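hey
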């Protein structure tokens, strides 16, 4: 399950860099939560073909993340925003509330767009 979730995150960032076929298969696997057998049946390929496509796409996504680090950067950014927001919430006063609102807005925008 964790593998599928991590692949989903990477797919959000780097999906456009995959082939059309890889995107199609990963959409079914990550977003539609289909099994490899279900994908094979739906796409008219073997289960091994579905497996190979998922694994090849995962390797490509991991390689892109190793080189570009966009997901890691996104996680650092949103983690930092959450930490700042938590600190500001503990400070009394109107200026702190304005800073809190701004930080909350920035965090919501980043999380909504998945950093891309």
């Amino acid at each position: 399950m964790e593998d599928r979730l991590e692949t989903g995150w990477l797919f959000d960032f780097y999906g456009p860099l995959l082939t059309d076929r890889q995107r199609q298969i990963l959409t079914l696997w990550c977003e539609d939560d289909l099994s490899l057998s279900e994908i094979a049946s739906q796409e008219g390929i073997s289960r091994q073909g579905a497996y190979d496509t998922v694994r090849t796409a995962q390797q490509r996504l991991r390689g892109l993340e190793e080189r570009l680090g966009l997901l890691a950067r996104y996680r650092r950014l949103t983690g930092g925003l959450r930490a700042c927001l938590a600190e500001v919430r503990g400070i009394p006063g109107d200026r702190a509330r304005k800073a809190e609102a701004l930080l909350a807005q920035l965090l919501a925008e980043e999380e909504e767009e998945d950093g891309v």
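The helical segments are 2-14, 20-31, 36-43, 47-68, 70-89, 94-113. DSSP finds six helices and no strands in the chain.
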